[in-house]
Amino acid sequence: MAIARKTAEMAEPAPRERILAAAHALFYRRGIRAVSVDEIAEAATTNKMTLYRHFRSKDLLVTEYLRGRAADAERIWDDVARAHPGAPLRQLEAWVGKISARLAENGNRGCAIANAAIEIPEKDHPARPVIERHKSLQREQLARLNRLAGFTDPERLADEIFLLLEGARVNVQSVGRRGPGGRFKERALSLVKSAARRTS
Amino acid sequence: MAIARKTAEMAEPAPRERILAAAHALFYRRGIRAVSVDEIAEAATTNKMTLYRHFRSKDLLVTEYLRGRAADAERIWDDVARAHPGAPLRQLEAWVGKISARLAENGNRGCAIANAAIEIPEKDHPARPVIERHKSLQREQLARLNRLAGFTDPERLADEIFLLLEGARVNVQSVGRRGPGGRFKERALSLVKSAARRTS
Fold it and tell me: According to CATH, what is the number of the domain A69-200?
């Protein structure tokens, strides 16, 4: 009996995972406010009662969806660290390359977490701490690599790259990839190149 | 009779203006999708029938709201041109200052038009041409001033300032004004200062 259930679970993801996958696909594509809980339950081939048993409210489902998106973005830092151990400048450039490749993918709608910040002005929404933590961490990761790479003003370069990226992600949604957002990689690498480094 | 009507109109804005003012206040503060047509009609002390007589649909009201926001943003270029005639570099710096001051205002939720681009992924929405036209124009205005000011790579500097600003406007919504978005003015002016200009 236990074995039969386990096999069934392996064949198909559990309702919680299906709900999160559906929420991710629909929220990202159409926006958080544009998608109802009913639509997510249906896309996850489950029902609203099961959805609420796992997530209690739409706000908490949104929060969990954003936690997943944050974890996904944070993994990229590990990927570039593994690919270029002990080489912070190359890690930084590789990160810019990976982020830029994502931005050029079909169906890209920028950063799910920044989009959520715009859709959720409420300061008491449970997703707010997830948004703030993730965005602060991303900028801090940039500053950390800049310090390790020996830039004389690592904080300034971190602000520049970070804001350039946030801007690019919005801009591709405003005017498409032929606008300045489509030149994010070129512009970011040019800022990296022209920033002063301590002679090493 | 005609005079009496004119006096009444002067005492109180016509329904169309009241509806647009209410749409502006509510859409900007809470987001386009979060606000219903009923709420706007009520805030404008009119009714839904009058609203639809003037704007036909919520989508067309959103479009008209964004046209107003675009015109407002575009006026800033005229203001700085009048304040610093024949001095493109000072116009550019004054524009950065004005935009930055807005970003620091209480209740600022970034750029209404960029926010709309995120809330409206539909490519056939009537607001789409307004969004694209405005964002292209803003970037082109920056490039134009950069050319006049004699920067050797006016397009690059235009991309940098433009994306920095778009990023700052999103970032203040993610982490507040103490994050990198709150340093937009300082960062943008530093890019202007370090960009190469033809010897004049």
Answer: 1.10.357.10
**Between A and B, how many CB-CB pairs are < 8 A?**
146
Contacts of B187 in chain A (CB under 8 A): 156, 159-160, 163
| DSSP category for residue A176 | -
ipTM comes to 0.93
For residue A162, the number of C-alpha atoms closer than 13 Å in the C-beta half-sphere is: 34
Determine the Cα–Cα distance for residues A164 and A168; give it in Å rounded to an integer.
6
pLDDT in tens, B70-95: 999 999 999 999 999 999 999 999 99
Q: B interface mutation test: which of A122, A174, A189 has the most B CBs within 10 A?
A: A174
Chain-chain contact of A163 with B159 (C-beta, under 8 angstroms): no
**Among B23, B17, B56, residue whose Cα is nearest residue B40:** B23
DSSP string across A97-125: HHHHHHHTSTT--S-HHHHHHHH---TT-
* CATH 1.10.10.60 location in chain B: 1-56
CB contact under 8 A, B163 and A174: no
Is the domain spanning B59-200 CATH 1.20.58.460? The answer is no
Nearest-angstrom CA–CA distance, A77 and A141: 8
Nearest CA in chain A to B161: A164
Q: What is the pLDDT of residues B93-138, one digit of tens each?
A: 999 999 999 999 999 999 999 999 999 999 999 999 999 999 999 9
Every domain range in chain B assigned CATH 1.10.357.10: 59-200
Mean pLDDT computed over A37-61: 98
The C-alpha of B32 sits at a distance from chain A's nearest C-alpha, in angstroms, of 9
Give the CATH superfamily of A1-56.
Homeodomain-like (1.10.10.60)
Partner-chain contact A119 B114, CB within 8 Å? no
